[in-house]
User: Fold this.
Amino acid sequence: MTIEVHVAAPNEEVWKACTSPAYIQQWNAASEDWHCPSAEIDLSPSRKFSYCIRLLRCNCCLADPLRWLLFRPAARHTQGA
Assistant:
């Protein structure tokens, strides 16, 4: 798989954002309902990396055991509600 993205920023900043676990944890989320609690990256020839993303709050809605799960974000509580 190849993913190509063009970013309007200096190469040094983009490299740091894509290779620094602390920065990856800041931007690697699908939406406000997600977060990245851990990120590991090894730029040696073995090229190992691991990013973990999770829903902040979610409920399991449906499941077909050993095949698939459907998660839905939990209802948001708004201030004053």
User: Anything to note?
Assistant: The helical segments are 11-19, 21-27. The two ends are 45 Å apart (CA to CA).
